[in-house]
Batch of 3 targets.
Target 1
Amino acid sequence: MSPEPSEPSGAAAAVGERLAETSEVGAGPGEVTTGETVTAEPETVGDEVYLGALASLAGMGPARLGRLLGRWEPAEAWNVLTGGALTEVRAVARVSEQLGRRWVGDARRADPTEIQRRHEQAGVTVRRRGAAGYPARLAGDPEPPAVLFSQGTPELLEHPTVTIVGTRRCTRYGADVAFDLARAAAAHGVAVISGLAIGIDAAAHAGALAADGVPPVGVVGSGLDRIYPRENAVLWQMVAQRGLLLSEAPLGAAPERWRFPARNRVMAALSDACVVVESHADGGALGTATEAAQRGRTVAAVPGPIRSPASAGTNRLIAEGGGVLCDVEDLLVLLDIARTTPAPRDTAGAAGGVAPITDAVAVGILEAFDWMPATLEMLASRTGVGLGELAWHLENLSASGLLSRRGLWYERRAEAPVAGGGSG
């Protein structure tokens, strides 16, 4: 299996949406014999069924789908394809003859209701722009997604929101800052949005999940069944279970490079403010900041050492007029949120006076550390404990002073008194 692509940055990020316009897919075996428009017959299924089917066609990016839906309703567009109206499809979608033939052939072989059934069985909802459940924050956007695929709780977007992004090649400093900012934001009623990439994104999601507050929102560049990167599988599943996952891509869609800049514009549009924690000089997170600024959102960056490549982009963003974010208080001011909720408890202190641990699962989790730092992924693999239960126990053990947490890592700090004798 060939490796999946990394996210684009720099110039690639700036033209990512256009890549969806120019990438083509080899033609399939379908024959097309007419260029005449086929009138749609009355249908008994909803628009979402045909939207899911249209979005599943090879090479169908947001811009192409938007042009088709600007000309036809979803059912009409599907019937035009299955009817073989190649000339009109090409003219409306602005695609090559090769890709147009591929669409016609694939549409003739596909069953839209079966595609919809697969999404329903996976717990994925198809949301059309303008329909119930479609995020109101995207309704007036200059580039609103024609369709969104979602898992989780869409009402989370009714909270204040902040997008926290940064480099995949982050430093320990950057991961710690992203974790702490996201945890504080979630504890104060803010939905943290990020892209579920490794590095800063993952630290932000983990921080939001660690708070006893609003769960996070993940916006991804693949189908919701194509976890990318695989290293974030447990984190991805926790966001889906406790928060909200969004994508413009249907089930099965691979994480193609052009999808990530498209995803970035969605994150920017959903946010009240955008915070870049660390970014290299040509980092893709700067593209998200640009998208946010173009939409009138507040943009801020965390300053870093001038000799650190991981802070070159954020320091330049500040030098060019972006806001400076140095601590949690700055974040709350940025979001115009009063500190009415207690800050997350600092668990770095000693574990003296800890009550005896009576829960066998908690004891097993402590023993899984073997006095070495471990990530959520490692602990899930070692213990077999379900994601929600594992997160709950880790929070309780941290609050008790038995664990400390920095960024994505947990570390055991003390022996736990175990009821009935022995030690954890």
Target 2
Amino acid sequence: MTSLNSIEIFINIANYILAMATTIQISEDLLETLKKKKLYAKESYEEVIRDLIEDTMELSEETKRNIEQARKEVKAGKFYTHEQVKKELGLR
């Protein structure tokens, strides 16, 4: 592969990545609300929006089964406390 081909490939990849992004228009009020939702300063607005959407999504059937199994295990006493784990790992 010649260096010219490498450069052309790189430019094509860069153009593809840039084409994937889009701009949306929102009000100043919504922008301020999104800013307040950020967990850290450099968090992107895409991450903020995805977190908000995820919060409204239905849990999968597998996740629901896993939660139910975990509840049964806790009820049956099949768990370790933080103190027990720290002691076992020699962290105290």
Target 3
Amino acid sequence: MWILAWPAQNGSLGVKILKWTADPFQSLPATPSPLAFGRGDDMEAVQAHDAEEAAYYKLYDSSRLSRLRFELRDLQDPFDPSTERQVLAGIGIVLALLVWRQETKAGR
């Protein structure tokens, strides 16, 4: 179980599994990036950006399931990796102490 939550450079294994489950064939369109600064005068760039956003939001708003898939695909780890390691190590130590205490009580 700990291996699923242990952070890596590009996300924990649990988050990677959720992202893959949401979009296993990478068929969902990418989140549209904002229009680059200074490109607002280029009508073709604005129209292409608007078309990309329209296609994205049409699929995003098509159903609750597709919205959930987009949200899971874009999921990030909830903590900073160094904080997450410390929290997981602390939980592991506390659980080990609790198990040790239960075993010493049972041995009496």
